[in-house]
């Protein structure tokens, strides 16, 4: 029997939701900051609505309706448009920037750092994320993610699931598609990676979107590896 | 008195010569490999001549005489043209590739890893190197260089000292030029970085080119920091 993961030399990770808990981190960060700054709002609802703008915004870039725009800029546009309904129209420019940069201050899921440190000993590891370069570097410093390098869709000026993003990693690293594994908590990401030849690993994050999450609760295809978390992925990948 | 380095948030490093000892590493690697493989040659001379082709090759790219060509490809072209005079015309394709990839297997100067680990606690650190992405990632794995991210001239499709390379780091990281420090063992690199506003740190590597080195033995300008090595740089930068 051929083990399909034996060829793997590098593993790249979706970050938002797969490696870091964006929703929990943002609610905690902004609640604490709001408390200290005297700025009160329903941060949970704001975060959910903010994140809800994300796919439609990227779709506008994907369809070419607007030119390449990175995530920090998309986040800022969405944030500013949401502030009035949350009673936050009075935030200063510096405060808006601080709130927008909360995406640079996300915390890892409890298993992530230990799992990545194990995987790093055997594989090249990096994010392959729609996040922009500065965001991913700052997030890694904040959350102590031990990446070997940062692969950002900003490098490729394309958002996942465009094939150029997955194949861009292969090209930059001189690796064949079957030497690169995509790890994600989102089935669509793995389907796109598989369609261009990458290996795939699914890790469920059933509370990424909060307690009522209905999507991506389980693997929707026979991905090469299905692991319970990144520690389990390390075990299953022999690291 | 204003300390000009107080603004610094990220430090980027020239790699070949500044962080890794390319000449010593290559002679040792190929001598050992040649011994094991029954391939005999004057590796020291080959390395010196190989490296001698490097600036003229990059100049052809800089002048636009040839399109963007990365370092692995430039190295391979130069290597193949040098093999006959070293009696190595019979090397197989796999052997040529193994020899060419020696640039991915360079070792750090003795002070480098400890110095970088100290600097990483306080600053974002990365290479800003003419080396291509795969080379820099593989070199970091091999030499245990704890980069936060890889800044390669391949990302910018320009070789240093083009301003786009230094300013590209600033742009990607949302940093002002005076928030980024360039560290190099080569005065020309620092002059170019300073000309676009970066901070500068010189570290002499007087045996980079072997015992007879005549260039870059000392700082040729009043760089913001002159350190004896990367441990000393960490001390001088308060890390």
TrEMBL record, chains A, B:
GO terms for molecular function: (S)-2-haloacid dehalogenase activity. Keywords: Hydrolase. The keyword Hydrolase applies. CDD domains: HAD_L2-DEX. Its EC number is 3.8.1.2. It comes from the Bacteria. NCBIfam families: HAD-SF-IA-v2, HAD_type_II. This is (S)-2-haloacid dehalogenase 4A.
